[in-house]
Design a protein that fits this description.
homodimer; alpha/beta; Aspartate Aminotransferase, domain 1; Aspartate Aminotransferase, domain 2; 2 domains; 4-stranded mixed beta sheet; 15 strands; 40% helix; globular; Aminotrans_3 (chains A, B); PyrdxlP-dep_Trfase (chains A, B); pyridoxal phosphate (chains A, B)
């Protein structure tokens, strides 16, 4: 499958691909040549247990999905100006998982395209332009979405905050503005929602109305944050009173990832006006969807402006999405996410008892975060520890990543075929890695000593000539010597 | 392949899919269940000769493309944060077709995503926001692109013209502001480019600079318009003098459609700063690309903001794009476009001598337009005639469409596997259809009489019960009776 040596792939990548497109493990990136279920394989045939690719929802290279895509591709792939069965079957499957008010689908190619259309629908329907989004939120790579994504526009080189954008505090009861060590969870939910009410009031004071409130139902880039139970209910009420509509961004967290429900917003007592879905929908194939109410769809229709998306809802994309739906049901992947996810959560909580660098463990189903801290009282984020864990786990051939505003939250969002045995492997390894960093005071010295040794961190130029996993051996030696 | 009767597909579509997503032949839409090369087949097995689906560039269900996609799908489909060979091979193929200054690729999922990123790159690089686009131009369905697409924002229900958007006249020497019956072609090119210079001057007068000039190299939605030879060269000079960069939108017209060149901008003596490509790139699969200069890519890099596009440049998309490239070369499809396209153009010009409703025939390769007029002197657009032609050709099982600001231009942009025999079939049929409308004064009466007959235009509710092609028989009777 490999068509050139890794060194050449790296050289061509550096030469030809935009330098803003970043690689995982920049200093020694992985070349992945195949993947199956919850495993990815590099060019040497080494397997990596995949805890991060939520897009490969029903498992990498899922045979049923591949079959559906290949068969449809061989027969027809055209635009939705022609009638086709796959698109209406897909729409029916989606609608059947949603509350009754959500009854009209627009098919697009990516979560970004979905969120852009959602905002456009909101603007047309409400006639307003002021959007409320959350601190640390990410909603996509398009211009309109970077504008509302605090995670992006607020970066040092970011575009900054536009006038029509309002940022509400991230409803994170662990490390946000209102915390569970000062308030009850209900109180934090109420206080966070009050901040949204205040934004609504300010918009109203200016004689304007709200266009939309948009939020992920659980926040992923924000650091695997689970808003308090009463948060969205209160927020939706305030937003609607101010003339706005409510958009649930389910691009990362939808399609049964949390187990109990198809959609994470169903964890709350709310009915969004628009739901956007993407990533897992095509198991890697570019397909996404915006679902909304008849009323909002009709507002768009009344403009007389056609919506045409060249590939949106094409027969191949929809056949694949239908196969993803069927696979989730046939293989009981939602139940599995619940059972395996609970085991993961329990195991992480056990680990938290052993390692004081684990400040918080939170999650639901196969959406779990481990919040690493310098000490559990101050809750000061421990980014270095997270970096160390991600790197060391990779050396142990387990792929995890870190996110959150301070990059200190280890994220788990594996393919839904993840097993209890996989959890045990991850936990055992993580336990071992965290033991290495148990003595916080030694961490800096360790990393420093590794970095100072020339073969410690292979560079892009030379790594292809390195021996297998030199860094691991090196670290083991380093640790033994401490 | 059909999973439900057409009537049920229609009913579900009406119920579940956004009403702004329009069907071809709204009153009696086509249900297409399979397609091969330049033919599409409806649920009854009837074949339609496809003159409109430029997306199916190397032919519907092209076996080499299907094989590449299916094989890659079965092995790996993941994001480009992992190294993979297909993406760098694809980038290399693209770069090899372009001038030296265009050397950095960003992979995305659609022409819309490509144009959005192009504008973003332009803003970051120039620090300016004022965009110059053309009258009647269409650059995509995203918020940022509808803002610059006169074809969309200027509709009665459109969003209107934003302050940062400037619309230059469409460089159409047949029915635009400056015409070939008043000026030489060179003069029209100069005059149209002067209008862009004036816009640049106005922007400069306000103490600002230009962000970007964006145009399709040949204008498709604008009515198959071919700008004069000297137009872009002059325009690019003015735009660059005003601090702007130049974007060539090749989403519709790229990948050898015009035969002589890989990219239509190469028809002109210009070097764009950014080229966007999409539709034909994946032969129906969602893949697109932005290619730019090292300098512009570095401006983006310097912001420190990562560009991550979940599916952009994934192994399946790139394997498919690579197969499209290889197929174009292996099957000499550019040469074929040139030869078949010349035959199409010649044949249309022959037809123009017979039918005074053909005001202009223009094109290059397999990008051809027939401009239908009420009379050749005034050049008044004949929309009714175009509607009649599109409908009648469909009854003859040939798919053409009409576009342009007055919907009077019959567009040909068939799959590149189109043959001379296909051209002859189209021309013979078109000749026959145009004979039917030869007597302009009878046209209205004919259409009216057809519409007044209850079975004439099957409605969405009842058409499934209609006999095969009732309208054709009806029209033939009508014509005989005249």
């Amino acid at each position: 499958m490999e068509q050139m040596p890794k060194s050449k792939t790296i050289a061509l990548r550096q030469k030809l691909i935009g330098p803003s497109c970043q690689l995982f493990f920049k200093k020694d990136p992985l070349k992945i040549v195949r993947a199956k279920a919850q495993y990815m394989y590099d060019e040497r045939g080494d397997a990596y247990l995949d805890c991060i690719n939520n897009v490969a929802h029903v498992g990498h290279s899922n045979p049923a999905v591949v079959k559906a895509g290949s068969e449809q591709m061989a027969v027809l792939n055209t635009n939705n100006r022609f009638l086709h069965d796959e698109i209406v079957i897909c729409a029916e499957k989606i609608i059947n998982t949603l509350p009754e008010n959500l009854e009209v689908c627009f098919f697009v190619n990516s979560g970004s395209e979905a969120n852009d259309l959602a905002l456009r629908l909101a603007q047309i329907h409400t006639g307003n332009t002021d959007v409320i989004a959350l601190e640390h939120a990410y909603h996509g790579h398009l211009t309109s979405l970077i504008d509302i994504s605090h995670y992006k526009f607020n970066l040092p080189g970011g575009v900054g905050q536009k006038d029509h954008v309002h940022v509400a505090p991230c409803p994170d009861s662990y490390r946000g503005k209102y915390r569970d060590n000062q308030h009850s969870l209900d109180e934090t939910g109420y206080l966070y929602s009050e901040d949204v009410r205040k934004i609504c009031d300010e918009i109203k004071k200016k004689g304007k109305g709200v266009c939309a409130f948009i939020a992920e139902s659980f926040l992923s880039c924000g650091g695997q944050v689970i808003p308090p139970k009463n948060y969205f209910e209160n927020v939706y009420q305030h937003v609607r009173e101010a003339g706005g509509i409510c958009i649930a961004d389910e691009v990362q967290v939808g399609f049964g990832r949390i187990g109990r429900h198809w959609w994470t917003f169903q964890h709350y007592n709310i009915q969004p006006d628009i739901v956007t879905m993407g990533k897992p929908m095509g198991n890697g194939h570019p397909v996404a969807c915006v679902v909304t109410t008849r009323e909002i769809a009709n507002s768009f229709r009344r403009t007389g402006v056609e919506y045409f998306n060249t590939y949106g809802g094409n027969p191949v994309s929809c056949a694949i999405a239908n196969a993803v739906f069927d696979t989730i049901e046939r293989e009981n992947l939602r139940e599995r996410a619940l059972v395996v996810g609970e085991h993961l959560l329990d195991s992480c909580q056990m680990l938290a008892k052993k390692h004081k660098c684990i400040g918080d463990v939170r999650g639901c189903g196969l959406f779990v975060g481990i919040d690493l801290v310098e000490d559990p009282i101050s809750r000061k984020a421990n980014k270095k520890c997270a970096e160390y864990v991600v790197q060391r786990m990779r050396e142990e051939h387990i792929l995890v990543s870190a996110d959150g505003p301070e990059c200190n939250v280890i994220k788990f969002k594996p393919p839904m075929v993840f097993t209890k045995e996989n959890v045990d492997e991850v936990i055992l390894t993580l336990d071992r890695v965290l033991k290495e960093v148990r003595h916080q005071e030694h961490l800096d010295a360790k990393i420093k000593s590794i970095q100072n040794q020339p073969q410690g961190v292979p560079t892009v130029e030379t790594h292809a000539t390195k021996e297998h996993r030199p860094r691991r051996a090196l670290i083991e030696e380093t640790i033994k010597s401490i």
